[in-house]
Fold this sequence. Notes:
This protein has about 210 residues and is an alpha/beta fold. The protein has one domain (about 1-210): P-loop containing nucleotide triphosphate hydrolases (Rossmann fold). It is about 30% helix and about 25% strand. It contains 7 helices and 9 strands, in the order βββαββαβαααβαβαβ. It has helices spanning about 40-45, 70-80, 95-100, 120-125, 140-155, 170-185, 195-200, and strands at about 1-10, 15-25, 30-35, 55-60, 65, 80-85, 160, 190-195, 205-210. It has a 5-stranded parallel sheet with strand order 6-7-8-3-9, with helices on both faces. Strands 2-1-4-5 form a 4-stranded antiparallel sheet, with no helix packed on it. Helix 4 (about 120-125) packs across helix 5 (about 140-155) and helix 5 (about 140-155) packs parallel to helix 6. The protein starts with a strand and ends with a strand. Magnesium ion (MG) binds near residues 41, 162 and 193.
Amino acid sequence: MIDLVKLSKTFGTRTLWSDVTTTVNRGEMLALVGPSGSGKSTLLNCIGLLDKPSAGEIRHEGNDITRFGRREIRRFRRDVLGYLFQNYALIENATVAANLEVAVKPQRTLRGRTDVTIAEALDRVGLAGRGEEKIHHLSGGEQQRVALARLMVKQPALVLADEPTGALDHANATAVIDILREMSDAGCAVVLATHDDRVRDRCDAVFTVN
Ligand code: ADP
Ligand code: MG
C-alpha cells in the first residue's frame, strides 16, 4: 500500500529521522513510537502530503507521492487518504450529519467493501440520533467520535492517525482502537503515532522513530 524508502527529514543541521524504510499493507496497522519530539507527527504529515521529506521516497501504487503536483495531491487526499487529527478537523458551525456528508463521495471502492451509511456510523460511535446537532455544542470526546464516524463513512484506503487516543479515557480509547482495527481488517492500511502501549499492542508492526 505505502512504502517508505530511505526517507529522511532534516531542519538545517538537525536530523529528525533518516533512512526510514518500512512498508504498510492493506489490512495492516503500523504504530509509530518514539519520545515526544522524535518526529512522529512530522512523518505522518509527510505521508499525508502536508510536509515534505528532505530525501527518500514514499511510494503508493508505483508512484513517488512526494513528487506529486497540486492536482495529484488533491486527488490523493480525496480518494485515498483519511486523517484523524488531534484537533478532529470538523466544521464547527455545521451539524454532525453535514460533517459526515462531506465524506460520502465514494471515488473508488475497496474490494469487498460494503458502504457504511451515516446513520450506521453514528450508531457505531454511540451518537445515534445526534446528526442534527451542531459540532460546537458537542464535548471534545463526542467531536472525536464524529471524526471517527466520518472515517468510517469515507472508508479510505489509507488512514493516518496522530495519537488518536491521546486525550481519551480508557473506555473511549478502546472504542477508537477497536474501530481502527475493524477498518484495517476490512482492507485499509493504518499508520498511527502513539505513546499508548495498549494501542501499540493492537498493531501488526511497530516502527521506532528516532
Ligand atoms: P512528535 O510528534 O514525535 O512529538 P514532531 O514531529 O511533532 O514530533 O516534532 C519533531 C521535532 O521537529 C520537534 O522538535 C519540532 O520542534 C521540530 N520541527 C517540526 N517542524 C519544524 C520546522 N518546520 N522547522 C524546524 N523544526 C521543526
Ligand atoms: Mg506528535
